[in-house]
Design goal:
Length: about 180
């Protein structure tokens, strides 16, 4: 089996685990993420607008917005890194690619912390995303400019024993789940 097929199978399993966790989730899933981000008040942060069965970072993002810049990803095109547009709670939004909302008016900036959505993760800081490479290209670009903290945010059930990774896959610095915080 080639790497593309192996990754597709790993994504399918990750999506199944994520959906099961999402279906049984309760309020307060983001408590540990709020705890982590409280130590970085005022540092520019980018989160994401949750789609489908992704765990929601919106409450911690709103907390961060009271202290500094918060953004959400805006896809620029296939094969390109993401840009991050400033977001505030209750700001006007428009439909973006893949069903994620983006700010009505783009106001781009470079975050120093990225809250990264994912399909699966491992305890070595590996991350399996949707397969477009957007976050890998983005983290590579941002890390070439300055230290950038990548925090994977997921349900604990999304953990995999091992992931089919490539040299271009950017590692996470931390994974935060509803169950705890893991630093790599």
């Amino acid at each position: 089996m080639d790497l593309t097929a192996i990754k597709a199978a790993a994504r399918k399993q990750g999506f199944q685990r994520r959906k099961a966790a999402f279906d049984t989730a309760r309020a307060g899933q983001a408590g540990f993420l709020s705890e982590v981000l409280a130590g970085y008040r005022g540092v520019p942060v980018a989160g994401y607008m949750p789609i489908r069965t992704e765990i929601s970072p919106l409450a911690p993002m709103a907390e961060c917005a009271a202290h500094g810049s918060v953004g959400v990803p805006v896809i620029q095109g296939a094969g390109l890194p993401l840009e991050f547009s400033r977001w505030e709670p209750d700001a006007a939004l428009r439909d973006g690619p893949f069903g994620a909302k983006v700010p009505l008016v783009d106001d781009y900036f470079d975050p120093e912390i990225l809250i990264v959505p994912l399909v699966a993760f491992d305890m070595q800081g590996g991350r399996l995303g949707y397969g477009g490479g957007f976050y890998d290209r983005t983290l590579e670009r941002l890390r070439a400019r300055r230290a950038t903290l990548a925090i994977g945010f997921a349900f604990a059930a999304q953990e995999a024993d091992e992931l089919p990774l490539e040299p271009t896959d950017q590692p996470l610095d931390m994974i935060v789940t509803e169950s705890g915080i893991h630093t790599f």
